[in-house]
Specification:
It catalyses: L-homoserine + ATP = O-phospho-L-homoserine + ADP + H(+). A hairpin with a 2-residue loop joins strand 4 (about 90-95) and strand 5. The longest helix has 27 residues, at about 255-285. The chain is α+β, with helices and mostly antiparallel strands. The radius of gyration is 20 Å and the shape is globular. Helix 3 (about 115-130) runs antiparallel to helix 6, helix 3 (about 115-130) runs parallel beside helix 7 and helix 4 (about 145-155) packs antiparallel against helix 5 (about 160-180). It contains nine helices and nine strands.
């Protein structure tokens, strides 16, 4: 369960007073997530999501608060943080910066179908286009520079073959970016896995977890989605799902010729990124209490990388 910080009764009471909730409101810890503490706040018939951020400061959250508020005003199905009775959005709970979100209806698609995949592709393209009007920029924290800097930290945990694989793929991604220097960039979600989307049946009801959001290559965002949504079961990609994501995206924003040529390289680079970040989490980031149960397997994305190389 992703609860690393317990919330005292007095802190809960103070939070309820800020929002005008009943003092009988309750917190229920939620499973999932790796980095932050997440609760469901139940107040009468209403439900909300309370997130305590275990890393960083409140200043780090300003970008996400403003981005989510902007998207909400544009009609996007996102969970924008809720202001309290005084109009305050960001709070300190148990010394941690905290945000309260609406509770989205629907479920994560464990096994997404082609209709859902097409819907998420359309949503992503709409995000990219709308984000051109968002004035704030934030550097991509998982850029090629990050890959180059962090790769040496994990090589000792890999076989010689995997060391060569990672080193070669980092070099090839750098070469790809030099080959295509003018690929479109703008606001990206940065982590749009299936468990960050909600569906009621085949209808997309919302998208969450923008904490990897930044200014980056749109193609990177698309590749993250295609990889996760295609590899839902087993070691082989479901090509119909990947095709549906791409078709949905291109219905809203057709890819340019240079993007079409670069997409296979970005699919590999995104697999590389998650392989590396999961290795860091597994070997170099000591887990908090109970966190070991939610560290994701790096091997999954090593296999995806190998399969993308063969395609």
């Amino acid at each position: 369960m992703a609860v690393y910080t317990a919330v005292s009764a007095s802190e809960l009471t103070e939070l309820c007073q800020r929002y005008g909730f009943a003092e009988t409101s309750q917190l229920k810890g939620m499973a999932g997530g790796v980095e932050n503490t997440t609760y469901q706040l139940i107040s009468g018939e209403q439900r909300f999501i309370l997130t305590l951020f275990e890393q960083g400061s409140g200043e780090d959250l300003d970008y996400f608060v403003q981005l989510l508020s902007f998207l909400a005003t544009q009609g996007f199905a996102v969970a924008a943080p809720l202001p309290d009775l005084q109009g305050q959005v960001l709070h300190q709970i148990e010394g941690k910066p905290s945000l309260l979100f609406p509770f989205l209806q629907g479920q994560h698609p464990e096994q997404a179908n082609a209709i859902q995949a097409k819907a998420i592709g359309q949503w992503l393209a709409q995000l990219h286009l709308a984000g051109q009007q968002f004035p704030i920029q934030r550097p991509n924290q998982r850029s090629i520079e990050w890959l180059q800097q962090r790769m040496p930290d994990v090589l000792a945990f890999l076989s010689e073959d995997d060391q060569r694989l990672m080193q070669k793929e980092v070099a090839q991604f750098a070469e790809l970016l030099e080959t295509y220097p003018d690929l479109p960039q703008g606001v990206i979600h940065g982590d749009l896995f299936r468990d960050n989307s909600f569906f009621a049946g085949d209808e997309l009801t919302g998208v969450i977890d923008f904490y990897n959001g930044c200014t980056g290559h749109w193609l990177y965002d698309l590749a993250v989605v295609i990889n996760d949504w295609s590899f839902q079961a087993g070691d082989e990609p479901n090509t119909s799902i990947g095709t549906a994501v791409l078709a949905g995206y291109q219905k809203v924003r057709p890819l340019r010729p240079d993007e079409q040529q670069a997409l296979p390289g970005f699919l590999r680079a995104c697999a590389l990124r998650y392989w590396l970040s999961r290795l860091i989490a597994k070997h170099l980031s000591p887990p908090n209490e109970d966190q070991s149960s939610v560290i994701k397997d790096p091997e999954q994305y090593r296999k995806i990388l190998v399969l993308r190389k063969r395609a």
